[in-house]
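Dear support,

We are seeing what looks like truncated structure output for some complexes. This example has four components. We would appreciate it if you could run it in full and send us the complete token output so we can diff it against ours.
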Amino acid sequence: MTPPKSPKPILSVGLIGQRFMGKAHSNAWRQAPRFFDLPVVPELHTVAGRDPESLQAFADNWGFAHTTTDWRTLAADDDVDLVDIVTPNDLHEAPALEMLLAGKHVACEKPLSSTLEGARRMRDAAAAPGAGQTFVWFNYRRCPAVALMHELVQEGRIGEVLHVRGTYLQSWGGPETPMLWRFDKERAGSGAHGDLNAHIVDMARFVTGQEFEAIHGAIAKTFVEERKNADGSMSPSTVDDVVSFLAMMESGATASFEASRLAQGHLNRNTLEINGTKGSVRFDFEDMNVLNFIDGTEHPRTRGWRRIMCTDGEHHPYAGAWWPDAHVIGYEHGFTNMVADICQVLGGGAPRVKLPDFADAFETQAVLEAALIAAERGAIVEMGSVREG
Amino acid sequence: MTPPKSPKPILSVGLIGQRFMGKAHSNAWRQAPRFFDLPVVPELHTVAGRDPESLQAFADNWGFAHTTTDWRTLAADDDVDLVDIVTPNDLHEAPALEMLLAGKHVACEKPLSSTLEGARRMRDAAAAPGAGQTFVWFNYRRCPAVALMHELVQEGRIGEVLHVRGTYLQSWGGPETPMLWRFDKERAGSGAHGDLNAHIVDMARFVTGQEFEAIHGAIAKTFVEERKNADGSMSPSTVDDVVSFLAMMESGATASFEASRLAQGHLNRNTLEINGTKGSVRFDFEDMNVLNFIDGTEHPRTRGWRRIMCTDGEHHPYAGAWWPDAHVIGYEHGFTNMVADICQVLGGGAPRVKLPDFADAFETQAVLEAALIAAERGAIVEMGSVREG
Amino acid sequence: MTPPKSPKPILSVGLIGQRFMGKAHSNAWRQAPRFFDLPVVPELHTVAGRDPESLQAFADNWGFAHTTTDWRTLAADDDVDLVDIVTPNDLHEAPALEMLLAGKHVACEKPLSSTLEGARRMRDAAAAPGAGQTFVWFNYRRCPAVALMHELVQEGRIGEVLHVRGTYLQSWGGPETPMLWRFDKERAGSGAHGDLNAHIVDMARFVTGQEFEAIHGAIAKTFVEERKNADGSMSPSTVDDVVSFLAMMESGATASFEASRLAQGHLNRNTLEINGTKGSVRFDFEDMNVLNFIDGTEHPRTRGWRRIMCTDGEHHPYAGAWWPDAHVIGYEHGFTNMVADICQVLGGGAPRVKLPDFADAFETQAVLEAALIAAERGAIVEMGSVREG
Amino acid sequence: MTPPKSPKPILSVGLIGQRFMGKAHSNAWRQAPRFFDLPVVPELHTVAGRDPESLQAFADNWGFAHTTTDWRTLAADDDVDLVDIVTPNDLHEAPALEMLLAGKHVACEKPLSSTLEGARRMRDAAAAPGAGQTFVWFNYRRCPAVALMHELVQEGRIGEVLHVRGTYLQSWGGPETPMLWRFDKERAGSGAHGDLNAHIVDMARFVTGQEFEAIHGAIAKTFVEERKNADGSMSPSTVDDVVSFLAMMESGATASFEASRLAQGHLNRNTLEINGTKGSVRFDFEDMNVLNFIDGTEHPRTRGWRRIMCTDGEHHPYAGAWWPDAHVIGYEHGFTNMVADICQVLGGGAPRVKLPDFADAFETQAVLEAALIAAERGAIVEMGSVREG
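Here is the complete output from our reference environment:
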């Protein structure tokens, strides 16, 4: 930890990458100490990127003290405590390994890697002696409604889990959308699957507290087979547009998941529902401040789905940091809440709800890999075999 | 057809069975001619059942002229034009075959049979020379919102179909529910699957106008393994409580289905959503008068899911027979609308939307069978092989 | 009561009028004994109307044994037990008075009369010795959700009532709608006010169990000032298109009401919300099977509006007569539930929830009148002065 | 304007007050230049407050360079360009007048003043030669959904406005809530009325583009008459808990408004609905990213309320500054969007939608005053008389 410039220790942050996620993360690092009382205070030290011109503008906007076009310099910089990696999926592993070797803490975007082998190496590197702590940006865990869902399920409020149902539907992936790295299997690893199913698999594991036992069938399909490049030429779109799969959880609960970028009418429909023996919970990100809950033990005369606005500062996770009741929060707050928990942990405290590290994210990546294997083979795939490689 | 006692020809109806569905059907046969102008008018001729005492009360209540404890007498009775079969699933085939042989029209509850072989024999009997016309009570096709959904998809309003998503979730099947024929595999054939997935598979075929190509994975699971009999003893519950499966439609669209009787909070959550290249449609029976529709060709500034109240007498299927706009209808009206269409067809007219016959219902049963095979084998199952036996 | 032709006494019904409400009522009289076990059984004896031709078709369709073009014959007919009046508002009083004088029971459509004076005379006639019992078709009281709302409020589940908020919004009254009796003040008495506010005022009185203390401001406005007749000529439209008003209830609760036929997007938006010291209830007819309820005494962490599907046969009013849980009912069932309660009362039993009689409906009419006076005078109007005339 | 320290001119901001609104505003001043490309860049210069200790912590947290316990020093400080006033309502006027006299720009919280006379003096001071520009924090105008609502209505998409319906319901004001300045009429001017009706009156004026013609009835009521002080003693609660009123707009449209702090189940239910001859729009802050719109000119077969997620960066106001589609924003973003527009205007540009100044906010205050007069007198109150004083 950098010697304190203020009464509180500083957490000096390096960032690799500067697009959509660079913006979301930079904002979160800046905002967290304004709203939370944290044991360590993040400062934006250096941003690393390829394009010097846009890099400087980015640094100026968000308040990074330095820029570099060579992310390796971060490993060597003793002033940097934590490196935040927001590059395309195939570019997570190299910097992560190098930063861990240098003893830095690493916060990495999801999915952990573009390949399961990469994820395995990252997990192992994180477990090596001298490595810093690791964090993976499964930001939805820290939507207050999802955190509350987790707490209620863990407390037994819905009894034993019987069914898990997740969808992550978007609609921006039609043939009119041009070629991007996200459509290139080499870079992204997969399409809707790694981008969207990654979130709902993580959320299902987080909320139920269970691992997956086996995949019982999957479909992965590419509907849009080529896309236009910036120069007007066409390139093959090599990733899935949709992946659906069925699974059994280790308790015997049944589960289904679907991610698509071609679901007209759904813009960011990240939903998770859990049915248990005593009740159910349901989340939909398009109505992110709300948790739907039904308590099956309530008298049938007045039993019904409850629409819980998760904005009560005293009773709902993270809500106390923000605004008065029902003065709702948005997408970016999940990241800010996560920064707050990272700072808690690095300052010796505890997160409000469990933070995903590389080992945890490896498990999600194994589920995603198993689903793709199931789709290819048309057979049941046991998680044990995939996990062990 | 019976010689007319009134200006309009009479359709004389025999009913086999007298429980929940007996009530729903008897009401529909009585109500349809009050609300629709029909070419033939149904009359309730005879109800057949096992228990003479309750049978007479049933007949008195609904206006059946006769009762019998031997359904075979219906086949021999020249006054009976159509026989309506609402017995448990294993008792559909015998009366259906006998009535068809006797030249009667047959309206049969769904699923067609408790076995695929039974369904095949019923389909073949319906195709034999001299057989009457056949109808299967997939009543949800005639909810105005589902009929409109079908029309919009068939007109191309959502473009090419990409994804199909059906769920039919209920919550009455917990361990506190006593043993019923519905939990006995010998009688019911299956549990939630034949009871609930049957409807959403039929609706998916009806709305898309497509057959299924293959099943790509399935889970069938029994959570509650025994149930209490009326005498306090326990019997094994031998049917599935939940069946989930993935499928490809013949156009290449992906599909998923789930039926459960253990989904707390869902009472009769029969939903179907279709995403196409140009838009999407969504139905939820718990809000049965509404069709949700998004037109992807609309300007993004004012584009959104439209909540269409399908109660406009001039523009929505079946609505003109009922009440002024937004004076909503209920569950029973699907049956009444179906009686109206049966009468239209038997009077030489056309139904508002396609009526399912035995051949049509056989196809649904083949899909259900294929899903169970897929669950058992853990493999992809092509529909062709199942269909052909 | 007519001497019994069956084990149960018959309630012989005469109907005056044969349009929309004639259809709704005839259906209800026919359906109630099929679904409810009633102490007396209604039979459709005679329908009275002006046009002999359509009258016979109406009688044939609904099963009336007789027709007449002179409603006065019903008063003289000893076989008729109850007369149901569904004529335009200005034609309620004359038949009601004559039937009461003849000792018949009278069921009259709402609002009770086109004038408060007429309503007062009707109320007084109903109280005269020898008059039959009276009923007014405020059908929404018998939607299961509204009846449950009444029960919960009366049991104190929302504590003391603080605010009442009712709207009844429709959108069919634009300039393209031709001239009808409903737009003629002589016949209808008022427009949206008597047609729609009548219902929400009745519901507010029924659910809270309170009378109105005073009207604290009102607006009555006609936007469409003339309409096209069938022959192409124009006639003045002399009724309100919208009436809004504020009121104090006798407990000191504040209240607001609005009825409009020009509220685009609302087809039959009959809503009532009550906020109390311990909770709130909310009903919306466009989602008629649902009652929204929030229990303010519940822990804030899991408190939320509950969406109660009022279809539980064991626990929700009237639901037991109909279908399994969440097999929803529609508009017409409110009328059928009311027929069931009328038969209960005339058979010596008790209604599930209070039935409105002429005295009760007079009170609603006095509120409507007070609102119009307040709109005209621009002043507070005490209910006492209006009630006493 | 302060001489530029960076390529862009700086807007140096002084803040008076440091509670809930101090936090919301400080955040907005900090965030706006990160997300918007602005012609002038705000810097937090000085915060003024009474309590030196909490003041320094506040300044440190939000990055104010200076603190003062005497707000008058801001007027004298040439480095301060704009003064932002977030004190209780009775403490808006004095600093506003002094800052305007000193030529500062002033941004003031709503309602403009605790009295109409105060508001009038503020309006007049803003119009004096040499005064800076004025802004009033009616933040909801800049929720994307409300801004879109305004645009659609102004473009004629709903035709002529017929009805306006606003509610602002909260539930935190029960007897268990202790004494606060908000319950003291001397300081707050009014209760729910100035706090909540102020917003919906402003929104109604903004969206319709119309002024109010007259108030046609009002109720103002205090249910909780005393509250506990911090020391355990009781003080009278002298403000309204609820105010409802009816109004006519200058076009002849009818309008109703209700604000309450005692509406169980509503946490921040700020709703506005406008019905026009060709369609309707509806906003509910508890679902703030959504605008409901119905286009009455659409074919009835597929007409329905559209749920527009106002997050499209290309097509929806302010959305382009934030996140990808359906990555929703929250309460605080309305303030940040307003800061962006203030900077646009002070940099010589145009706001995305109209910014309220003191003259504009005076008009809202006159409506609020007229409603209270109407409640007291029980009579119609013409706006002309109130406006002119």
